[in-house]
């Protein structure tokens, strides 16, 4: 599953990473040529948060799906 999200501040990043960490499958965050593990707080914080980020999930989790919807951009 792929999604585009926008995280506006460190609290939103923390909530996103916390939800990703509960998943037992790989989740990657992409921006341009950079790829980081969605379960890495420092990795996600190092991304350019002024732009939308692409998220690629290798599985499904209902709770994490809710977080993706919360921060989804069109």
Task: Describe this structure as you would to a colleague.
- Helix content is 35%, strand content 24%.
- The protein has 74 residues and is of the alpha+beta class.
- The chain has a single domain, classed as 2-Layer Sandwich (Histidine-containing Protein, Chain: A), CATH 3.30.1340.
- The chain is globular.
- The mean pLDDT is 95.
Report on the biggest sheet: 4 strands, antiparallel
Uncertain stretches of 5 or more adjacent residues: none
CATH architecture: 2-Layer Sandwich
Q: Which term fits the overall shape?
A: globular
What's the end-to-end separation, in Å?
15 Å
- Using the coordinates shown, work out and report the CATH topology: Histidine-containing Protein, Chain: A
Order of helices and strands: EHEEHEH
Give the strand content. 15-25%
Q: How many runs of DSSP E, i.e. beta strands?
A: 4
CATH superfamily: HPr-like
């Amino acid at each position: 599953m792929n999604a585009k999200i926008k995280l506006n501040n460190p609290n939103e990043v923390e909530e996103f990473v916390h939800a990703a960490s509960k998943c037992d499958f790989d989740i990657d965050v992409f921006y341009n040529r950079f790829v980081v593990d969605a379960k890495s707080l420092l990795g996600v914080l190092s991304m350019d948060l002024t732009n939308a980020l692409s998220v690629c999930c290798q599985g499904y989790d209902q709770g994490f799906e809710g977080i993706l919807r919360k921060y989804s951009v069109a």
